[in-house]
Each structure stands twice: as C-alpha cells, then as structure tokens.
What does this fold into?
Amino acid sequence: MSLFSRTPRLASTARSRKEQPVAHLAVHPAGEMIIIVTSPDGAQALRTHAAAGQAITLTHGSTRVHLTPQKRADIPVHSPTSGWIIALTPAEQRQLATLPDSGDAQLSSRLAVSVEAPATN
It folds into this structure.
C-alpha cells in the first residue's frame, strides 16, 4: 500500500476528547447512513465542539459515541466495548456547528443527527 493511498480507513478515537453525559443518546445504522439521536444538551455539546474543531464523546448509560474531526470520511466503527467511533469531515463539522435544538439534520450522505426533547410525564 502506498503512502498516498485513497483506500478507506476505519475511524479512530482522538487521544484528547471531552466526555459529555447527555439526557438521551441512541445510534441507528440505516444502510450506509448513521443516525445519531440525542437531546438538546447533546446538540449543544455537538455545536460547541464542532465549532472549536474538537473531538467529543457523548454518553448516556452504556451508549457512547466518539466524534473525531478528520480530513476525510473514514468508515464509522461500532465496538461492543467502546461504542460508536465516527470521523467528522470538515463539511460535517460546519453543519454540526449550526445544529438546531430540535429536529433532524442530514450532515452528509453518511451521517444525520436527530435532536429530540426528552419525554415529560
């Protein structure tokens, strides 16, 4: 394999990242797309870290999603022990920086985020 190979790589976690507990978090693969479902506090954390170009790990219970800025769209990985590992392209980071507090946002052909208000009783 050459140094400048264009073959796909698996996403990997950043060494330095903030771990942020959120009120709701789920991840659903849908064909080639990964859909992250989170609460408004998760959306705020995603906006803040995307705007700063920083990696973040969202957590809720045993669910974990590592989002790491990269120059290219590496293949998302689901690890039974580490959770989801998703590389963010510069375009996806720009989209995340303007993520709304509610509703759905398709960041790319491979990644979407749905922000849902927590259920009230």
Remarks:
- The CA atoms of residues 25 and 38 lie 4 Å apart.
